[in-house]
Amino acid sequence: MPADTNPYGGVFGGWLMSQMALAAGSLASRTGRGKAVVVSASDFAFPGAMAVGDELSVYCEIAATGTTSLTIAAEAIARERNGESQVKVAQGRFKFVLLDENDRPRAAAAPSKSFHPR
């Protein structure tokens, strides 16, 4: 939406990051089978521009599993509103910590071999 643009009329990078965090969080919660909170974001790049009205798709995969954490790589692809042209507009990594019912870190199990996040 126009409220999500930068002063130059392009989609604000912070909005893209928030959409990517939502997608990565969904994968973290589903894989971790419970509450997962983002604790860091890194390695962000914005190789392309997204226009207002473009369709955004975010693809995520588990990059690493720690003792209580999951690192998820996310890639954002924009498709032009009235066509088929696509461009990668952002990529980055999010680290999530899995929490128990008392909001304390809990062990992260290795993902199932049959799990395909894309």
From TrEMBL:
InterPro entries linked to this entry: Cytosol_ACT (IPR040170), HOTDOG_ACOT (IPR033120), HotDog_dom_sf (IPR029069), Thioestr_dom (IPR006683)
Keywords: Hydrolase
Name of this protein: Acyl-CoA thioesterase
Family that this chain belongs to: Belongs to the acyl coenzyme A hydrolase family.
Organism: Pelagerythrobacter marinus
A matching Pfam family: 4HBT
Domain HotDog ACOT-type intervals: 1-102
